[in-house]
Amino acid sequence: MVYLTYHDADIDEEAVTFYDDGRWLNDKCIDLYLEYLEHTIVPQERFKADIFFLRASMTFFLSNIDKSNISIYSPPELKSASIIFLVVNNNSDVSRAGGGTHWSLLVYVRELKLFFQYDSYKSMNELKAKYVAETIFGLDKVDIIETNAPQQMNDHECGVFVLSFAESIFKKNKHQFDTQNDKKK
């Protein structure tokens, strides 16, 4: 049963339990908040062309399908957006739904051709983030800049940190996005 639908995101009965204290957020919870960010913080069309939030579920899907099919299933924004936010999960077992133990945020800045990793638990997802970047973007070798991100103090808040990082990065750089878009006019 679906409890909440917000644009393209649905929260079902199982996902509701992930909002309980001491639980980690699953991909549906994360995708709901990214949907919210996209429709409230990045509502203007001029930002939508430059900023793209690749959903956690889509990041996982694209990084685990046959590489020859990635271009078929990839959203067009992966080739055109200036800044792309990707939510990375360390699950390596595609047969296990709900697998993995950690979320992190990977941000690609096209103009700089750089990937930035925001990981709330040291560099736990460093190798997975590198794999995701290389696979989804079809690159042979990727260097990822590990940021000095705030660190979680427990084993279950990584999803909350990822969402906080995404919102904070956009808000912090909003002036830069405004300036870039004004130049395009």
TrEMBL record:
Give GO MF terms, alphabetically: cysteine-type peptidase activity; deNEDDylase activity
Every copy of the Ubiquitin-like protease family profile domain together lies at: 9-169
**Which PROSITE patterns does the UniProt entry name for this protein?**
ULP_PROTEASE (PS50600)
Q: Which InterPro entries match?
A: Nep1/2-like, Papain-like_cys_pep_sf, Peptidase_C48_C
BP GO annotations? protein deneddylation; proteolysis
Name the Pfam families for this protein.
Answer: Peptidase_C48
Kindly list any coiled-coil regions of this protein.
Answer: none
UniProt lists the family membership as follows: Belongs to the peptidase C48 family.
For this entry, the protein name equals Ubiquitin-like protease family profile domain-containing protein
